[in-house]
Amino acid sequence: MALFSSSTQAIPITGDIPQHIAIIMDGNGRWAKKRFLPRVAGHKRGVEVVREVVRLCANHGVKYLTLFAFSSENWRRPADEVSFLMNLFMEALQQEVGKLDENNICLRMIGDCSRFDPALVAKIAEAEARTAGNDRLTLTVAVNYGGRWDIMQAMKRLLAEKPDLAQSFTEEDLAAYLSMHYAPEPDLFIRTGGEQRVSNFLLWQLAYSELYFTETLWPDFDEAEFKRAIVSYQQRERRFGRTSEQLVAD
Ligand code: IPE
Ligand code: IPE
Ligand code: MG
């Protein structure tokens, strides 16, 4: 139970392999620009890398992989890039769901679906239902997601459903309404593309994640890069507020 608790007092059991990896897949546009290609060519190549990283996670025993595909701020991009991304997402969903299902991978989406085309919302629901019973790896794709939106929607739903709690509720009460209530918090957060920021990703859940930043652009993120991130994680001492001496004594 402590594993899924959202309290910063909870100490998750950490093995060598992170149980949950969350990734900001950044750098697609720059990858394309370097090759004198349109930005969208980088997004296309990025989908191939997603496929490979899902395979690596499944093979290494990672149980949860969460990918930031489109942020609530990405609507500010040029309209043609936004619509390309939406189509790419729809296409990838259609093409990959069968393979995910065959490989016992559960697919989930998090984010505010209210701005999506109803056809896309239906496809998402269908893909989630089809893979719901799979338990090798849970792949969560964050689309039109924002960490602040998530906390706000959780708060609103909690108070609507349990008005008695308005005066006093716990972290656990709120966490049950967050989009990722079904998963432990990320052990390892990776951001490619060189920026060292969280860009409104999983604000609540990253409280005690190990952060890993790499200059490598997402379309260049390969098995060697994946392993480098895991090795870096394995060298960290996760103290969760305690001292090193206490960890040795445990
Ligand atoms: C990440 O790559 C993909 C999305 C945000 C959809 P970018 O498109 O942000 O690539 P850069 O940061 O401009 O290189
Ligand atoms: C973050 O990347 C969002 C996704 C990868 C989906 P951005 O490229 O949009 O982030 P900023 O704007 O540089 O912070
Ligand atoms: Mg970017």
Automatic annotation (TrEMBL):
Binding residues for Mg(2+): 26, 210
Pfam families: Prenyltransf (PF01255)
Gene Ontology CC entries for this record: cytosol
Listed GO biological process terms: polyprenol biosynthetic process
Cofactor binding remark: Binds 2 magnesium ions per subunit.
Family recorded in the similarity comment: Belongs to the UPP synthase family.
Entries under PANTHER family matching the protein: DEHYDRODOLICHYL DIPHOSPHATE SYNTHASE 2, DEHYDRODOLICHYL DIPHOSPHATE SYNTHASE FAMILY MEMBER
Protein name: Isoprenyl transferase
Native organism taxonomy: Bacteria, Pseudomonadati, Pseudomonadota, Betaproteobacteria, Nitrosomonadales
